[in-house]
Amino acid sequence: MPITTCVFDAYGTLFDVNAAARRAANDPEHADLANVWPSLAEIWRTKQLQYTWLRSLTGDYVDFWQVTQDGLDFALEKLKIGTEPRERLLQLYWELAAYPEVQEMLTALKTAGLKTAILSNGSNDMLNAAVTHAGLEGHLDHVLSVETVGTFKPSAVVYEMVETTMHCDRKDVLFVSSNGWDIAGASGFGFTTAWVNRTGEPQDRLAAGPHHILNDLTPIPTLLGM
To answer: Is the CB of residue 80 less than 8 Å from the CB of residue 66?
Structure first.
C-alpha cells in the first residue's frame, strides 16, 4: 500500500532546538553564553525529554511549555549561569528556526498530493507559534499536539491520533523524527519510519528501529518516489 500521509515530529526534526541558545549567545547583553551555549542547549533538551518520560510514567502530566521551563531551569543551575538570560531564552524558544530544507521538502510533498502533519509533544500554542514563525501554515494539513490525550510520546495513544484525525491507516503513514526513541515508538505502532540522524548518533537499542536513516529531510520526496 503506498504512503499517502507524511507526519513529522516538530522539535529537532522540523525546528532546530539549539537555535534559542545559539541566538541568545549572539546578544551583546548575553555574551557570557558564547562559550557555554552548546552545553546549555544539550542539557536543556536532555532534561526536557527526560521530564516528559518521567511524567508519562507517573501519570503527572503537565504541558510541554512547563517541562521546557523546568528543563531550562535545571540547565541554568547546573552550569551556574544564573537566571538573567532565562526570559530571553524562553522567548526565543517560541521562534525556533526551521531547518533550511523544510520549506522545499514540504512543498514537494503537498505538490504530489500527500497529506502532511506535525505530531508533537509540544503544546498547541507552542506549535502554532513555531509553524507561523517558520511560514509553514500552508504546508501542513494538521498540527497535532499530545495535549489532546494528556500524555507524551512514545505512548501508543499519541500515535493513534494520526489515524483518528487524518482518517488513514497506520500502514499509509511515513513518520519522520530526529529522535530514536520516537522512531522506536512509531515503528512499533506500525508506521513506516524515517530517522533523521543529523549528528551521526548510534541507533538506540530498543525493540523497534527505523525503516530508513537520513542525514536530513532533503531525501523525503525521493524516498516516497517523487
So the answer is: no
Options 3.90.226.10, 3.40.50.1000, 3.30.930.10, 2.30.30.110; CATH of 5-15+97-223: 3.40.50.1000
The 10s digit of each residue's pLDDT in 39-94 is 999 999 999 999 999 999 999 999 999 999 999 999 999 999 999 999 999 999 99
- Cβ burial 50-83 (10 Å sphere, 16+ → b, else e): ebbeebbeeeebebbeebbbbbbebbbeeeebee
Question: Cell 491520533 belongs to which residue?
Answer: 161
Mark whether 169 is an active-site residue: no
**Catalytic one among 9, 16, 63, 182?**
9
pLDDT of residue 1: 60
